[in-house]
Amino acid sequence: MNYWHQIPLFRLIIPFIIGIILAISFDSEIHIPLLLFIILSLFIAVFVFFSKKISNYKTRWLFGVIVYVLIFFLGFELTIIHTEKFHQSHFKNLYNKGNLIIATVSEPIEEKENSNKTIIRVQFVKTDSTWKRATGKVIVYFEKDSLSSHI
Fold first, then answer.
1. Rounded mean pLDDT of 1-19?
2. pLDDT at residue number 18
3. Residues 6+ positions from 73 with CB-CB distance below 8 Å
4. Is the CA virtual torsion 5, 7, 13, 17 positive or negative?
5. CA-derived radius of gyration, the chain
6. CB 23 within 8 A of CB 80
7. Judging by beta carbons within 10 Å of its beta carbon (0-12, 13-18, 19+), is residue 100 exposed, middle or buried?
8. Measured between alpha carbons, how far is 145 from 75 in angstroms, rounded to an integer?
9. What is the rounded CA–CA span in Å between residue 30 and residue 42?
């Protein structure tokens, strides 16, 4: 017995999750053009409105493939948009070795065996001679001494 017909949402979540995983695995920002979303949505609309005229047994699978591709691209694009490291203002895109940063401590100091650990939120990065606003969090480890425990 085919159980997939009893859980249609599960079948639609699979391409969405695959889109999210692929977007996370890419290290660079790749946007899917809005025109592609519009074209795929128009194909779906045509299939829905003219399903009696153009849908026969041979082309029935095409609607499912287009929906799966659209949902895949939707998961991919939403992940790119909502992942902080892909934003232009993320410190990863501005920081070079030796640059200065201004940050605030966002979590209390946690004492480890040989060090102190905290998370800081980057606010500015000095590039060349100007300070540029930046975003992002960094895990920072300080060598254990009398000063690092009072941050």
1. 83
2. 94
3. 19, 32, 36, 37, 40
4. negative
5. 24
6. yes
7. exposed
8. 46
9. 23
| Token output for 82 | 């909502």
pLDDT confidence band for 147 (50 / 70 / 90): low
Give the three-state DSSP class for 111.
strand
Report whether 137 contacts 117 (CB < 8 A). Answer: no
Q: Is there a contact between 70 and 14 (Cβ–Cβ < 8 Å)?
A: no
Tokens of 13: 């979540």
The confidence score (pLDDT) of residue 85 equals: 78
Q: What is the pLDDT of residues 13-61, one digit of tens each?
A: 999 999 999 988 887 777 777 777 788 888 777 777 776 666 666 777 7
Global pTM value: 0.66
Q: What number of residues does the chain have? A: 151
Q: Would you state the torsion angle of the CA atoms of residues 102, 106, 111, 112, taken in this order, to the nearest 10 degrees? A: -80
